[in-house]
């Protein structure tokens, strides 16, 4: 119906446009011709008739002119009215969108992450946010959304951007939990100290909340490396000591060797790699190490897991949110990485997803061992 109506309007308009356009071109010619005819002053060389290819006798009658001009004026007025209406409509839509945005922003920021021993259990990963401007923008968006735990590494080549985003954000340093990592080639005693100082300089911070051994490879030697970490902690340059990609055996060795407690082990974990042994080991009273899950949404692959899709549907959530909520249920901190506001907020909203026992059992039963980060140098290879 609407289509037909607009088709008809369009053909009327076209006819009118046709007549009007002819008249617009013809009227001045007619006037000039009449003027010249009556007063004998038709200027030489004025190509009035030639240009139009018409003789004066073919010029349209004034009645048609008036009618057409009237119709054109009416249409013009209607158009202006329409234009005004659609402008009002656009304004009101923009207002609505703005208010929706405010609502959804406050709905998003209303959540807060649980905290374990001072560490917010929901953090922001920054691996592959290498473009300076993009990294600053993403980290600022994350902080604005509510993230208070930021994970970086000297190897990510973005500590300066992370530091600048922190400095530019409205949140004070002491409200944030910042973690970085020492690369394998810098894990001998002296290099740990210089590497940590350089990270702090790039981050523009006096201390980091958590400094990890990125991989137990390269220059890593439990006693030498961890002694340097302990010294940094004593000097107040780092608040906590972390390790990453440590197996049960390596973690046991680290816990027994270190003069200061090992606070966290950061490993890959998601419903396709559930890390049952490590979780059990970390939870032991004499170990008491936090588990931090990297790649907690399996870099987007969780979207294809049927069990997660089913649970997501039940909770009107996304599989990504379910994966993050499941890790939380297991007492594990997650640090999903995202670039744009949409993903950043979607992930943050996982804090509002409450799984029940049936959901958790369903996800626990996923029997897959799919590791995404699996370099040859990894201790499990
Ligand atoms: N210690 C280690 O050895 C180690 C290893 C790997 C990672 N990490 C740390 O852990 C963090 C997270 O791990 P990760 O980056 O490997 O993987 P991840 O967080 O599981 O996944 C990140 C990927 O998922 C996409 N994504 C984010 N939110 C999404 C959403 N709601 N829906 C669909 N796709 C979404 C991202 O795309 P967009 O970017 O386009 O949003 C990105 O491609 C890293 O950034 C890093 O800080 C540590």
UniProtKB/TrEMBL annotation:
Record flagged with keyword Endoplasmic reticulum: no
Keyword S-adenosyl-L-methionine: no
NADP-dependent oxidoreductase domain boundaries: 123-367
Region of interest (Disordered), residue spans: 1-22, 68-112
SUPFAM superfamilies: NAD(P)-linked oxidoreductase
Molecular function terms, GO-annotated: oxidoreductase activity, acting on the CH-OH group of donors, NAD or NADP as acceptor
Keyword annotations: NADP, Oxidoreductase
UniProt family annotation: Belongs to the aldo/keto reductase family.
Protein's UniProt name: NADP-dependent oxidoreductase domain-containing protein
Organism this protein belongs to: Haladaptatus pallidirubidus
